[in-house]
Amino acid sequence: MHLFMNAVIGFFAFCFLAGSVYIINDIKDVEKDRKHPTKKNRPIASGAVTVSSAKAEVIIALILAISCEAALIINGSSYYSALCLFVYFVLNILYSNGWKNIPILDIVILVSGFILRLIFGATITGIALSGWMYLTVLSVSFYLGLGKRRNEIMINEKNSTRGVLKHYNYSFLDKNMYLCLALSIVFYSMWANDTNNKVILFGSVPLIIVMALCYSLDIEGDSDGDPVEVIFRDKRLIVLAIIFAILIIFSIYEHL
User: Fold this and answer.
1) What is the 3-state secondary structure (H, E, C) of the chain?
2) Which has the higher per-residue pLDDT, 218 or 33?
């Protein structure tokens, strides 16, 4: 129960912090977003939320995130969890203030968000982080980041409001994203084979391959490559993700 409470509090801490940096980024890019075909519908860009109200929301979100982190430390969590949140916040502030216009570095910062979430989860629960799991999340994150940039070029090549895209080309992003996808499947397979419940988890590898194929097929269409949008548009992916989650939960409790 102690670890479960830490996980719940940590979940909210990262949600509040991530929410604050997304709002900061939207405030920073409000004028560019208003010229974008889809981003113009975001709350701040559309005028549904004023900039002053958004700034107030940032302050509230940060206070809540700090409060959650304080609760984690009081509850026995490692101080490294606070370091993860701090690094995440600083990197995203730098991203919003110009680093997103530096090729490769912009993708590295996006990837770091996923990695920091993974490390943060390990620190607040005291669960040892598997090297294979780290490599899996790392390669999947690069796949998602490269894929998003690739599709932004494909869809908005002439009217893009994202300055960094002028430094990329479709071929470079396409080749490297599928390289990272291949590595993701290899690393996941190694992680599954290295666990205490090889039968269930190693048996889930074909499911992972099918999910990767479905996702890749989706982003070959007219998608801008946003992972959330891709997943929620594809009912097959949702069903497969639910099946995968059930397998993971069953493997954990079957081992216990």
Assistant:
1) CHHHHHHHHHHHHHHHHHHHHHHHHHHHCHHHHCCCCCHHHCHHHHCCCCHHHHHHHHHHHHHHHHHHHHHHHHCCCCCHHHHHHHHHHHHHHHHHCCHHHCCCHHHHHHHHHHHHHHHHHHHHHCCCCCHHHHHHHHHHHHHHHHHHHHHHHHHHCCCCCCHHHHHCCHHHHHHHHHHHHHHHHHHHHHHHHCCCCHHHHHHCHHHHHHHHHHHHHHHCCCCCCCHHHHHHHCHHHHHHHHHHHHHHHHHHHHHC
2) 218
Mean pLDDT, rounded, for 139-149:
94
Q: How confident is the model at residue 161 (pLDDT cuts 50, 70, 90)?
A: low
Token digits for 109?
């910062």
Query: Which residues have C-beta within 8 Å of that of residue 204, sequence separation ≥ 6?
Result: 192, 244, 247, 248
Label residue 1 by pLDDT band (50, 70, 90).
Answer: low
pLDDT for 79 equals 85
pLDDT one-digit tens code per residue, 174-203: 999 999 999 999 999 999 888 776 677 888
